[in-house]
Amino acid sequence: MPFSTHMRSTYTATPSDIEHRWFIVDAEGMVLGRLAAEVARIIRGKHKPTFTPHMDTGDNVIVINASKVRVTGRKAEQKRYFHHTGYMGHERFTPFASMLAKHPERVIEKAVFGMLPKTALGRQVLRLKLRVYADADHPHTAQQPTVLKLTQSESK
After folding, report:
1. How confident is the model at residue 1 (pLDDT cuts 50, 70, 90)?
2. Residue of 123, 128, 130, 103 lying closest to 36 (CA atoms)
3. What integer pLDDT is reported at residue 4 of this predicted model?
4. For residue 147, which of 31, 46, 65, 50 has the smallest C-alpha distance?
5. What is the DSSP letter of 56?
6. SS3 helix, strand, coil % of the chain, rounded to 5?
7. Tens-digit pLDDT profile for residues 122-146
8. Is residue 136 within 8 Å of 13, Cβ to Cβ?
9. Class for domain 22-72+101-147, per CATH?
10. How far is CA 69 from the centre of its chain?
């Protein structure tokens, strides 16, 4: 079969095509994993038709009220965060409840990080595009973020 000149080619975004927007998400009463999945999708840019896997096409996300996020089932008692000090046998496990009490921002950051690719681009997107705050105050009013209403399929 001869080559056809009107075949469709794969779209690849160029830096001039990329437009970064700002969104704000209220985490109060939201389930941690479902919130993290949506935030990861937005900061990676997968919600846009111009998504290109090897480029930063994502939007900036501000998460407020991180201390009021919830988990389902018995995760509040059973979930633990692993940390290694670098010395032999020095693994440290922090329970979810104490991590949420001391550093609520890290709970959401770690959940979102787990849903991003473990590449240089994934780490860059997490560092530059995600801002998490424990309460409703944030210093990004100048960016005029759009309120992003995420729906929860389960209500408890």
Report:
1. very low
2. 130
3. 55
4. 65
5. -
6. 30, 15, 50
7. 999 999 999 999 999 999 999 999 9
8. no
9. alpha beta
10. 14
